[in-house]
Specification:
heterodimer, A: 619 residues, alpha/beta, five-stranded mixed beta sheet, 15 helices, 18 strands, B: Rossmann fold, eight-stranded mixed beta sheet, two-stranded antiparallel ribbon, YfiR/HmsC-like (chain B), signal (chain B), YfiR family protein (chain B)
């Protein structure tokens, strides 16, 4: 209800209080005043009439004692001039009516009156006075008075009083409103400021203090509160800004670190390419067993370096959020078999049994085969590394929502404390472990991150001295497509001589290409940049172009695009172009293919991979 | 005077009946009341309060006045002094019978400070208050000059009731 006082505005309440107080006070004052005036008027009327009666009595005393009825009547006639006197009776000493005027009925009681007496009823005023001569009572006089004057007075007085009351009430109302506005203004100002703060969330300017009362103190309190909030807010923002700067600095440092790692890995990869390429070239010739063994050591060392390099690169990519997971059909048993094939000789050398069990996972699945192989390789590598005798078993089986890969060993086992730190970067089961077994400590961290990127997980079940089991769960789905894609099969070198254009800005890489391809009788032309490649390609025809990607002046992608454009322009037959790049990401390979390239060979160059790619394109 | 004479004549013509006891009492009361409506200078009343009314022993009004003796009057009471003619000094009111109401006697009484009251026809010529009986009513004629000469002040009420005031 809008009429409920609880819903009134503060201003209405104050105005109402002021008004109601005034009205009540006025009403009381008027009532008291009217009652008192009424009493005064009555007393005055009684007094006047008594006085009149006394004067008359005095004038009538002689008529009474000298028995002059006519004189008494004449004197009484004077009362006709007094409007409110309706009648009068004069009694003699014996109480008999002596003379009268008007309608007054003789009242025997009047004769006994010894002192002035008056009785006021609602309708009349009766006054009785004794008539005396000297001190002797010689008779009595009774006056019968109407009260018309009194009532008329009351009516007039009530009217005037009502008008005055109405006027005073109206004035009180105006004053109340004005007073309320004066009182409320600072409160309203404060309320508005509070609303503003609440609605906008921004701090207002200090509210002007306009009085020294409670509201003034409230205003002061509010202002100091706002000041304090402002100060807090300011220091909070400053702290936040500092934190942002610190975070940006940290992010920037981290980005620089990742950039540095990527750069370093690239810089390391090029000489490694030279080492590994030349070793492979040397292995093509007949060598003494000593030489064979030494070259094997060089090649193994180089590949170990490459693994470390790839791990570091993966970590930096994962941290930078740049690692991409592919989803493509692949043969899961074949992946597992490849891993087994890689580690079987190592296990055999340590006299450790490596077993692979495929428990209903046969067929093709959708997923990132490279990364799954990476995870599996890592786990098997660790298992073999930390197992001195006994066996390592790899079990693959389907689960309700994908595949589970279990790699169990009978090795040293991992304590619960070690398990907790196992998957963190740069952690091994024990700081001493790295000295004993080698490794960067990045492997498991990368595995976990890769599994998580594939929306899977890795957990470890182990007790110290009782071996360990790593369980990888991956939410893979089976590939429903019927088309069977043949795994690239390894091939031997092509039989007839090929004309190959090699494009690489790095002299070492060019020498590696030359060392690897010339023994096969390949007619190799080597150039150092994009424009030179286009010129060479224009001058003669090639069976294949091996195109490095990152080159100064013009990169491989641009050179390829131009060659394809020139082919279209000149109606020349399409020359297959293979990209030579390190660790290319899938979207980058997409870019290469979009530019017109036909395939991709990773650096450092593996002879088998290179020959397979060449054989596919040429043959 | 000319007006009073016919009235008086008429009254005489009616032949006043012999004064009854009631009439006497009534007249005595009038004399008493006249005294109550008259004021005398301070010290003129006997013993500073009593009003002395002088009347002849043989006046028919005397017994009626005697009965009023001792009634309150002013600060004191009514004292009736009955004596032979002429009255001794010290009267406040003097009821003068018709046979003694000569101008000289009335003037002498006034000079003594007595307010003279009488009933004879020309009493008001030298007397202060003349009682007139009209039918059953008794009225009076006042000679205020004589009253003042006697030192008495008659109240306005008394003067108003008078048939004639000179």
């Amino acid at each position: 209800m809008a009429l409920s006082p609880a819903r009134w505005s503060f201003r209405s309440k104050v105005a109402s209080v002021a008004w109601a107080t005034t009205v009540v006070a006025l009403l009381a004052a008027f009532l008291v005043f009217v009652v008192q005036q009424w009493a005064n008027e009555k007393a005055s009327l009684i007094d006047q009439r008594t006085t009149l009666a006394l004067v008359l009595a005095d004038n009538l005393s002689a008529s009474l004692v000298f028995d002059d009825k006519a004189g008494a009547a004449t004197t009484l006639q004077a009362l006709k001039q007094v409007k409110s006197v309706r009648g009068a009776v004069l009694f003699d000493a014996q109480g008999a009516p002596f003379a009268s005027v008007g309608k007054a009925a003789p009242d025997a009681r009047a004769r006994d009156v010894e002192a002035p007496w008056a009785r006021l009823s609602e309708r009349r005023l009766e006054v009785r006075v004794p008539v005396r001569v000297e001190r002797e009572r010689v008779g009595g006089l009774m006056l019968d008075c109407g009260l018309d004057e009194l009532w008329a007075w009351l009516r007039g007085y009530a009217l005037v009083a009502s008008l005055a009351f109405a006027l005073a009430t109206a004035v009180a109302f105006m004053v109340g409103l004005w007073l309320a506005r004066v009182i409320i203004r600072p409160v309203s100002r404060l309320a508005r400021a509070m609303d503003q703060v609440r609605n906008s969330g921004e701090f207002c300017d200090p509210v002007r203090r306009s009085s020294d009362d409670e509201v003034g103190r409230l205003t002061d309190a509010f202002n100091s509160l706002i000041d304090e909030l402002k100060a807090n807010d300011r220091s909070l923002h400053e702290a936040l800004d500092d934190l942002k700067l610190a975070r940006d600095a940290a992010d920037s440092a981290n980005a620089q670190k990742s950039q540095f790692l990527a750069h370093m890995s690239h810089e390391i990869r090029t000489p490694l390419n030279g080492v590994l390429g030349m070793v492979q070239a040397m292995q093509m010739h007949a060598l003494s067993p000593d030489q064979e063994e030494r070259l094997g050591v060089i090649r193994g060392s180089g590949q170990a370096l490459l693994v470390i390099l790839n791990d570091i690169l993966d970590v930096s990519k994962i941290e930078a959020g740049k690692l991409e997971i592919e989803t493509a059909p692949f043969d899961l048993p074949a992946v597992a078999e490849r891993v087994r094939a890689i580690f079987a000789p190592i296990a055999e050398a340590k006299n450790v049994e490596l077993r692979l069990a495929l428990d209903g996972v046969e067929g093709r699945w959708l997923g990132d085969s490279t990364r799954i192989q990476q995870i599996l390789s890592n786990l098997v590598s660790n298992a073999v590394k930390f197992t001195d005798h006994g066996r390592v078993s790899v079990v693959l089986r389907p689960t309700a929502d994908g595949v589970e890969l279990r790699v169990s060993d009978s090795g040293v086992g991992i304590s619960p404390e070690q398990q907790a730190r196992l998957f963190q970067s740069f952690q091994q089961a024990d700081a001493s472990t790295s000295r004993r077994y080698g490794g960067t400590g990045l492997g498991l961290s990368i595995c976990l991150k890769l599994a998580r990127l594939m929306r899977g997980d890795i957990r470890v079940e182990s007790r110290l001295g009782e071996g360990a089991t790593f369980v990888v769960t991956l939410p893979l789905t089976r590939d429903e497509a019927l088309e069977a894609v043949a795994e690239p099969s390894e091939r031997t070198a092509p039989e007839r001589a090929l004309r190959v254009l090699g494009v690489d800005d790095n002299a070492t890489n060019r020498l590696v290409l030359k060392a690897l391809l010339e023994p096969l009788g390949v007619a190799l032309v080597l150039v150092a940049d994009g424009p030179a490649a286009i010129a060479a390609w224009s001058a003669e025809t090639f069976d294949v172009v091996l195109m490095d990607i990152q080159m100064p002046v013009m990169d491989g992608v641009e050179a390829t695009r131009r060659i394809r454009a020139l082919e279209a322009e000149r109606g020349r037959a399409r020359t297959p172009i293979l990209a030579l790049s390190a660790n290319a990401l899938s979207h980058q390979i997409d870019d290469y293919l979009a530019a017109g390239m036909d395939g991709h060979v990773a650096k450092p160059i593996e002879v088998a991979q290179l020959y397979a790619a060449l054989g596919q394109l040429s043959g | 005077m000319s007006l009073v004479v016919p009235l008086f004549a008429a009254a005489v013509a009616v032949a006043p009946p012999a004064m009854t006891a009631d009439d006497a009492a009534f007249k005595a009361a009038i004399v008493y009341n006249i005294g109550r409506f008259a004021t005398f200078p301070p010290g003129r009343r006997q013993d500073d309060g009593d009003l002395v009314v002088c009347i002849e022993d043989d006046d028919p009004l005397a017994p009626a006045l005697d009965r009023l003796e001792g009634k309150p009057s002013g600060a004191g009471k009514l004292v009736v002094r009955r004596s032979g003619w002429p009255f001794a000094a010290g009267c406040n009111l003097a009821f003068v019978s018709s046979r003694h109401a000569t101008p000289a006697a009335l003037e002498a009484l006034a000079d003594q400070g007595a307010l003279t009251i009488g009933e004879s026809k020309d009493f008001a010529d030298q007397g202060a208050v003349r009682l007139i009986t009209i039918g059953r009513q008794t009225r009076f004629e006042i000679n205020n000059g004589v009253a003042r000469r006697a030192g008495a002040t008659l109240s306005a009420q008394l003067l108003r009731l008078a048939v004639k005031v000179r």
